[in-house]
Amino acid sequence: MKPASDQPEESHAHDTHWVETAVARYQAPLTRYATRLLGDTERARDVVQDSFARLLAQPRDAVDGHAVEWLFTVCRHRALDVLRKEGRIMRFEEGAVERVADAAPLPGHELEREETHTALLRLIGLLPSNQQEVVRLKFQNGFSYKEISRITRLSVTNVGFLIHTAVARLRREWAAQAE
Amino acid sequence: MKEPKDFYSDPQLTAYALGELEGDERAAVEAMLQTDAAARAAVDQIRATARQIEAALAAEPEPEIISFPLEAKHVASYATARKLVQFPYWLVGGLAAACFAVVMVLHESQVVRVEQQRQAAIAANNEVADQSARREAEAKKVAGAGSTSYAEVTFPVAAIPMGNVETQTKSPAAAADSSAVPGTSIASNQPADVETVKLQAFDAAPVPARGYAVAETTGGSRETADIAGVNNSVAYDFPSRATPDGFSTEAAADPTGDNFVSAVENPLSTFALNVGTASYACVRQFLQAGARPPADAVQIEELVNYFPYAYAAPRDHVPLAATLEVAAAPWAPAHRLVRIGLKAREAAAGGTSETVAKDVKVQVEFNPAKVQSYRLIGYEGRTLKKEAFSKDTLAAGDLEAGHAVTALYEIVPVGVEPPPGGEALKHGKVESQSAFAKASSSAKATADKTADKESRVEGAGSKELLTVTVRYTPIEGGAGRQLEFPLTDRGATFAEASMDFKFAAAVAGFGLILRDSPLKGDATLAAVEQWAGQGLGPDVGGYRAEFIGLVHQAEKLKE
Question: Which residue of A149, B99, B276, B307 has the smallest Cβ count within 10 Å?
Answer without folding.
Answer: B276
